[in-house]
């Protein structure tokens, strides 16, 4: 439903804005698409309105064709030539037009289109063929003679037999998308094999389809404003009207329901930037953090070499494995410690050691401090991630086999259509958990020691506020709801009690959404402002 | 595969005596050929005869033939270990309008003018740029040792010693794609 509407509104970019409201209101009148409406609203809330649209393959093809036709009439070229030019300029018609009108000959040469001047083209053609094959009926590839009809040449005049042209084109298609820029068989010739020539040569249906698909892929993958939906198996295309800067995340939701970041193609991660997300993920997977921990917190037993962590107590260590007794500071055997060495508890051996040990300890301290800081952010990031997937499970339980919503509906004698607020709350939890998760990444990269101070406090205040209201909401949707699910065991619930629950949950959903919008907005835009205002405090 | 084209190519090469290249068919189909290139005059390869293994795949001539030096050669663009060749027309610059002959001629031209800045064998290329006299001495030595006619077919000498005629021995070796044991089996069988 949504796709059909958005496709019909996708004819022209400027018409989209005016039709968008219509699109949403259209949907909200439909009972069965209540969920979808919510999604759309979410997007309208969390992402800027009318910044993208979702297209199916057919309408993407139509858009590509429209662009080609428009360009071909502007430059007075055939559509196939226009298509080749657009592909070369990554479907950026403005760049193409600029370069075309300033230096057409150079552009033609780069792309492999001959000059329109027919005399020159044919003159060039005959001169090269004069050097090469003297006999115009001889194919220079299979070395057979053919009647004129079986020979084929493009405007450049390099003739080869149709069968060789056919194999040449098919081999190129089999090799992959580079067939879109296939050149004439003649090695010295730069003439591009355009789409019309290619399709006249290749009769094999599978290869023709493949070739057409390469064009579509080129259009989607090379235009900056288009991206395939990243959900597995989904062939929809998202179009962004106003592309964000390279590192600025932009949340988009495909009509298939998949939500992702348009800029980097990964899961949504606002308010963290795309590069933060990438660094963070690499950091989390890197073994180096584990090694850092071992380095910072453990020493190997001097006898059995097993790593030992000292978490409390005095310096007199006893290895749990080999029972070796040693001094934690100097790693010498404890039996050698006594009055001679300055007493059990002030190991002067340690002090007398050379400076390298001091440097070693400094490194350990630094590693431990930076690790502790990382652990702080990572634990919270990870906990929210786990909560997020828990909430997803809850959402599934509303619909799936357990069908909790139906139970609630029966127990409270409320029609299903009035229960939409419950999954809506749950979706809000998922969304917020995700945002909260990435605020920790944001915090980790934005507030290291130097930049800390009141900015960090402000950030933590906003984050704490948002987190608090999310905890309330999450608790309400997961714990309070159970009263109404298990009603059979606890006896009937009063209508009033349920209404109370409804207004509490609806209220919390709204408050939480507002908090999170504020949080993301402040983090993405406001920090600079606030810095300017309070930076000197 | 376009057999008739390969046949014509072989015929054409055999007619051309001046260019210093030749081609022989190995085995009983046209997928394995053996080309020879005479070392160009006034180069360190002068006097040598270099054997090139040629493999023709089914898509030929729309994909390049596979070529490899069988004779050891000391050259920046040829692996001194396995004879692999770094030459653009044998890779992405191949065109079906090129032939085995043009490819062998390009190899001959490569022997005249090595491209040390796009090397296949980094060690050789380094020597070529860093200590050119030593490079030349080594290359000449390799040409004498490995590429002087009569020495490159160890199998042939062995078959001659066993009492077969030169013609018999060569035919058997060619039929077995150079495999000595298979050639002996064929001659005795």
TrEMBL record, chain A:
A Pfam family reported for this protein in Swiss-Prot or TrEMBL: IBR_1
Top EC group: transferase
Keyword Transmembrane: no
SUPFAM superfamilies assigned to the protein according to its UniProt record, in alphabetical order: RING/U-box
PROSITE patterns, A to Z: GATA_ZN_FINGER_2, TRIAD, ZF_RING_1, ZF_RING_2
Top-level division of the source organism's lineage: Eukaryota
Record domain GATA-type: where: 238-265
Catalytic reactions on record: [E2 ubiquitin-conjugating enzyme]-S-ubiquitinyl-L-cysteine + [acceptor protein]-L-lysine = [E2 ubiquitin-conjugating enzyme]-L-cysteine + [acceptor protein]-N(6)-ubiquitinyl-L-lysine
EC number: 2.3.2.31
Alphabetical GO biological process terms: protein ubiquitination; regulation of DNA-templated transcription
Keywords: Metal-binding, Repeat, Transferase, Ubl conjugation pathway, Zinc, Zinc-finger
Domain RING-type, first and last residues per copy: 135-351, 139-179
Family the UniProt entry places it in: Belongs to the RBR family. Ariadne subfamily.
Protein function: Might act as an E3 ubiquitin-protein ligase, or as part of E3 complex, which accepts ubiquitin from specific E2 ubiquitin-conjugating enzymes and then transfers it to substrates.
Protein name per Swiss-Prot or TrEMBL: RBR-type E3 ubiquitin transferase
TrEMBL record, chain B:
Active site per UniProt: 86
GO molecular function: ATP binding; ubiquitin conjugating enzyme activity
UniProt-listed Pfam families: UBA, UQ_con
Residues in UBA domain copies: 149-189
EC number(s) per entry: 2.3.2.23
Secretion signal span: none
InterPro entries, per the entry: UBA (IPR015940), UBA-like_sf (IPR009060), UBC (IPR000608), UBQ-conjugating_AS (IPR023313), UBQ-conjugating_enzyme/RWD (IPR016135)
Species this chain originates from: Chloropicon roscoffensis
Domain UBC core: start-end pairs: 1-148
Similarity remark: Belongs to the ubiquitin-conjugating enzyme family.
Keywords: ATP-binding, Nucleotide-binding, Transferase, Ubl conjugation pathway
UniProt-listed SUPFAM superfamilies: UBA-like, UBC-like
Name recorded for this polypeptide: E2 ubiquitin-conjugating enzyme
